[in-house]
Design goal:
alpha/beta, seven-stranded mixed sheet, 14 helices
Length: 388
């Protein structure tokens, strides 16, 4: 089974910020064509080993579904998307219904020819339930004309773990080394990260209470200084020059963050106050398609942990947007969920959440980043070349 060269990307809404269930994670792009030799449907051990690279993290207690579609004029099939469902919440039938509805929608949109399902479950008390869950999934998808081509269960995705067919149609075998799978090698060569677990992503969103208290103590004065400076500049007819200097200061903070230096509370407070100015905030969305995207994400992540309310939502939305555009659907989902949790009325966070849950392709959001580039240019600031 060959991974798609132009897969979609989506993100989930399960985990520490559950408001409603969404779906899913999907495969990254592969540079320079498909890995060789391709993964085959009759090699479930290799398919299972490739799932961490496809998702961007090692799934645990999850149902992972690979969505298939035809390529090469129908002569072969490829994985168009990989969808993950949290088995910790699978006992709620309403959530299961939401998942199957979401998966059916993805299959319909991608003109899927079928799906492959992998249950990753290490709890002995759930042994045997995979069959029931698979039966429910098959029944739900069958109503939409979607065939489940194969279903396997495995306690963990690691070298030497034994998988077995849920239906006993293919038998059992051993999972190959995930770190040496062709998909993982391709992923690493692109400089992309494969996280050890989903918890590694959610940990980046956990507020730092001590730092947050220091930032909150300085945020009021920082906001007052920025607003007073902007008002004075506007009266003098120099508002654009003032905002240009403010944007340049943000870019300097990003450049310094790239060296690994954490921002002090005073700097984070000033950053939060500066991002409250809409032209500055809109301009930095343009960084998501340039060479400074990774450094910018580091700064947004620091602010996410240090800020609260709308300021936290602003930083998390910037972080989620950047992850979304570079194809890291799982991390985008975690960041966007944190943004909505911080401020349910935040317009960009809600837009991104809707985009993820409806499976909007990243390239459809790219125009927002291009608008950011134009806004920066209007302020007289070059935020770098567009590389994505």
């Amino acid at each position: 089974m060959t991974p798609s060269t132009n897969p979609t990307r989506r993100a989930e809404r399960t985990g520490p910020f559950p408001r409603a269930l969404g779906c899913a994670e999907s495969t990254p792009r592969y540079p320079g064509g498909l890995p060789r030799p391709p993964l085959r449907v009759d090699e479930p051990g290799e398919l299972i080993a490739a799932l961490p690279a496809m998702l961007g993290f090692v799934p645990e207690r999850s149902l992972v579904v690979a969505v298939l579609h035809e390529v090469a004029g129908g002569a072969a099939e490829a994985i168009e998307a990989v969808v993950r469902f949290d088995l910790d919440v699978a006992t709620d039938i309403r959530l299961l219904d939401q998942f199957t509805a979401c998966l059916a929608s993805i299959c319909l949109r991608e003109e899927a020819t079928g799906v492959l399902a992998v249950f990753v479950e290490d709890r002995a008390e759930f042994e045997g339930e995979e069959v029931l869950r698979a039966a429910e999934l098959i029944d739900a998808l069958a109503e939409d004309g979607i065939a489940v081509r194969g279903a396997w269960s495995v306690p963990a995705i690691a070298a030497g773990q034994r998988y077995r067919s849920v239906f006993g149609t293919v038998g059992s075998g051993l999972v190959t080394d995930p770190s040496s799978s062709l998909v993982a090698v391709s992923h690493v060569l692109e400089g992309k990260q494969i996280r050890g677990s989903r918890r590694e992503m959610t940990a980046l969103m956990i507020p730092d209470e001590l730092l947050g208290a220091r930032v909150r103590a300085q945020l009021g004065p920082a906001d007052a200084r920025y607003r007073a400076g902007l008002a004075a500049a506007a009266r003098a007819g120099n508002a654009v020059a003032y905002q240009r200097r403010a944007l340049e200061w943000v870019l300097w903070q990003i450049a310094d963050t790239a060296s690994g230096a954490p921002r002090a509370a005073r700097e984070l407070a000033r950053l939060a106050a500066t991002l409250r100015d809409r032209p500055i905030r809109d301009a930095v969305y343009g960084l998501a398609v340039g060479d400074h995207a990774e450094a910018a994400e580091r700064l947004w992540a620091q602010l996410v942990r240090a800020a609260s309310g709308t300021d936290r939502a602003e930083a998390a939305a910037l972080l989620g947007f950047s992850a979304y555009l570079r194809g890291d659907g799982p991390f985008a989902g975690v960041a966007i969920a944190a943004a909505v949790e911080a401020d349910a009325e935040h317009a960009m966070a809600v837009l991104l959440e809707t985009s993820l849950q409806t499976g909007l392709r990243p390239e459809r959001l790219r125009r927002l980043a291009l608008c950011g580039h134009q806004i920066a240019a209007d302020l007289g600031v070059d935020i770098g070349p567009i590389t994505l």
